[in-house]
């Protein structure tokens, strides 16, 4: 087995960590991330901060408008705004 | 000179999600929340001349929205009162099956939960406002709405690798900002 097949770069580790926040990392990717996590302090710090961010968003129970809903509000508002400007 | 300026052209992009989040946590209904947010923007537009620039645009819009939410509950309560009279004469339903039990209670959450969620939500939205527009949009779609990678790529016409680069930049900036304002 080639060494680079198992050992990943810091950037790759961060990419896998990002994907893992959305449950989109494969088990093999998670294994490679774990390997790097043990010996790379930059990866450890990135994983810690990234997980903290995900946890915060989850705890805040945030809601936002869907793109289409925002566009609908924007269209109505733009109409109203141009009426206002004509006055 | 006023500390803050008013710029309605950017209201929807900058504040619609923040106002929507504020509303839905209080009225628990997506459609009503959307209507209240839209009414708030319209009311803000009409009373723009009253904006003195002492508070930020966001704070000013929130104060309008709070009044809209109170009005909404007043309206519900007055309708509820009329309905209760009708029900007491016309229905043979079981004891305790009052209309008021079917209406969402705005004070259902504990005050502490609401306060903590609101403050954390404020901190997250304040950090989101500092991101470039594209990063903020992708972060919201992926992290808050929980949309699939493919859906976002199709909607924004970007590749998956492009999406992950944007997500990475957004998450790094968000973590930096949250570290300064919330984590510590």
TrEMBL record, chain A:
Descriptive protein name: Glycine dehydrogenase
Q: What is this organism's lineage? A: Bacteria, Pseudomonadati, Bacteroidota, Flavobacteriia, Flavobacteriales
UniProtKB/TrEMBL annotation, chain B:
Gene3D superfamilies named among the record's database cross-references: 1.10.1740.10, Winged helix-like DNA-binding domain superfamily/Winged helix DNA-binding domain (1.10.10.10)
Q: Kindly state a single biological-process term from the GO annotations of this entry.
A: DNA-templated transcription initiation
A single GO molecular function term of this UniProt record: DNA binding
Keywords of the record? DNA-binding, Sigma factor, Transcription, Transcription regulation
RNA polymerase sigma factor 70 region 4 type domain: from which residue to which, for each copy? Answer: 122-174
Domain RNA polymerase sigma-70 region intervals: 12-75
UniProt lists the family membership as follows: Belongs to the sigma-70 factor family. ECF subfamily.
Q: Which PANTHER family match?
A: RNA POLYMERASE ECF-TYPE SIGMA FACTO, RNA POLYMERASE SIGMA FACTOR HI_1459-RELATED
Q: What is this protein called?
A: RNA polymerase sigma-70 factor, ECF subfamily
